[in-house]
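Q: Convert this sequence to structure tokens.
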Amino acid sequence: MESLKEYHKKRRFGQTPEPSGEMLNKAPEAGNRFVVQKHDARRLHYDFRLEIEGVLKSWAVPKGPSLNPGDKRLAMQTEDHPLDYAGFEGVIPKGEYGAGPVMVWDRGTFEVEGDLSALKQLERGDLKFTLHGEKLRGSFVLVKIRSSGASGKAGKNEKPWLLIKHKDAAVDTSWDVEEHDGSVLSGRSLKEIEEELPPLGASAGPGPETLEGARSAKMPTRLEPMLAVLSEKLFSHPDWLFEIKWDGVRALAWIKQGELELRARSGRLITASYPELAQLPSRLRADEAILDGEIVTLDESGRSSFERLQSRMHVLQPSPALLRQFPVIYYLFDILYCDGYDLRDVPLLERKQLLRQKLEPGDPFRYADHVVEKGRQFFELAQQQGLEGILGKQLYSAYAAGARSPSWLKFKITAELDVVIGGWTAPRGSREHFGALLAGLYEGKALRFIGGVGTGFTENLQREVFRRLEKLKTDRCPFDNVPETKEKSVWVKPELVARVKYGNWTDERRLRAPVFVGLREDVEPKECRFEDQAPIFGKQDPHLEGRPDKLERPAQPPASMVSAPALAGKVLSDKASIERELFHGRGQTLNVEIDGRVLRFSNLNKLYFPESGYTKRNLLAYYYRVAEYILPFLKDRPLVLRRYPNGITGQSFFQKDAGEVVPEWMKTVGLASEGKREEIRYFLANDRPSLLYLTNLGCIDHNPFSSRVDDIDHPDYFFFDLDPSQGTDFDTVLTIARAIHHKLETLGLTAFMKTSGATGFHMYLPVEPGYTYEQVRTFADIVGRIVAAEQPKLVTQERVVEKRPRGTVLIDAYQNSSGRPLAAVYSVRAFAHAPVSAPVAPEELEEGLRPERLNIETLFPRLEERGDLWRDFWKKRQPLERAIDKLAELHRA
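A:
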């Protein structure tokens, strides 16, 4: 291909793994793919590519694309690339053009905006388009810079453009490209690609079994969708996310054995009406799944059009011509079941993150993205774009199948509602079939008349509606009171539902200026209710009753909205009730208010320790009771989480970054990640609610840094981690502990000791602030080596467990590093019988101590008997200089 000459000229395809593009021996069909590749060549940059006229038109964007309209990104146009370059990820060798690692940073499809083709707009120097990617979404423009300006920075062969985000619903003013790193193809970083590590593949990220609330179960054979409550009071709140409200057909998708089954809200099968969606199983990284979404038809501006969808809704086997004329898009916003796990009790945002991980993007399937917190701003952008409305959903809410839940709220821009047709009036003027449809909504068991709908019909549409109505004629008026109409009325059984647009409501609860939009096959008449679809007459929104302050900026949702959706049921706040339910209750969930913080504990009866029968409830009850003892060793320290959502026999995973699902009151701290540009936000457990929140996530143990956030580079304690080889008895471990303890006493140092909770032992030394991790690690290593020399048959230096001689112990000092914590004192450990990392007194080293006897049940009697053996820990901060001098004296001796 002529336009690829420069691409071929710059590359030696025997030396570089890049595709040559020579496989394209015929003109390709028109496509609309886009790809962004992160490329660390001479300089780190992002290559932005659009499929136009059979090649990838390409621009190098030094700072990366942005979803912030305020960022005008320089984009230098480069040579065209072949289409198969869109899937290239790897390393271009040294000495070759563009040497360095290449990552597929984002991919998806795009649509050209306006009447001119993409090529014509490029020639004009002003290309407008909409992206549908995994990271980039919404409307953009590429604008050619006509000259390099006074600075003359652009070379004579360079073609500078600006890549600019338009204002729309996808705007993110806080956008930071580094926060969205990672390959969408393999899940790898650039460094991992450069080191040729294997792709993470389909299992990238936690699987469904790791999610808190996931329940092993067979796939449900029937499931009704969760519905939203209409609200007119906008708000912004960090515990809520907001999505576009698409105007289409709600559809649940069942995927099993490579087959797709689509069901409407009523449960009616609609698979045959949308044959282009049959490929969904091949686009989902799961064998079995139930997804929730909305099937829509888009107009020229990318807005969903219910009128256009009417042409598809009632056609069981659409023709190829109809498929081309009215293509559909399936916006997917939730996943309810995946590969053996029911996910309805998993927090919403975690379900959405799993869906995004599992779904391969590209039309006709799109992930329905969201923004967190910014409800008012999102609504304003939706208004500017002429959208139907937005949805607000509480981040932590479960999926209430078949219910209209206040944890999902809908805010309408276009005034539309679904009504029940109860009859028609005789035709007027040129009309042949009827004058107006008589509409109503249910209130209790009564169908209340709300007005006549006489406009919005084409001749063909009126004929089709009339044909359906005639089959339902009846002598009995379905409304509770017979409506007064100018023309004669004909009644029908209330079995048809219609979508109508309207101006507003009158004081008599009648629609003003209603316009017919179309019939709805996916909605049951009994679902069309006043309380769901109409404003409350004569009183304010019940969610806001008594809360006029919530109408002012900065807007927040009412307390009922914050707590009720995720915390369905009574919230216990008195200590006696909380302790009774935690220690003796039987329910699966529990809502509590502790120290002013409202928490929801879920899956309380899940078995966490099968050998002993301890459940998640037992674990939460333990931490509730032991909080005063463990919190002094967690406060203001970043935590590395290890989560066991299905107990000690299930899959566990580490988590450093807190992510975006964090309660407003939960404290986190951002720390620079070693060797990386991005910052990691670590959880802090500074109080009992925070400790219990993390425990509810499935954290069996709690692992703090040895330093506090106010002086992160200087630990205020260090430790000896005694790690025995396989088969070594615990008495051998105690022998080494006694030897270290004796050595430390000789050096004038005080040590605090605890069982590890497994086969090992921990010895902690509080120190005065100011020492670096390297300094305390070096000191611990020297002491450990001296003890090893004194106990050569019992101490090993071998770090690989399998290679250690039987009957030996490793004195591990190298765990004294930033970000490599040990389980805190009083932490439960993920081993059989729920052992605790329990404090030990020096005299107990001689008594045949057995750590397995110290568990969540026996610890409290031990506390009553011996007290808190670590209560004076922070009073014993000690300098190391004198000990170092004594070490030198011992060495000289």
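The longest strand covers residues 100-112.
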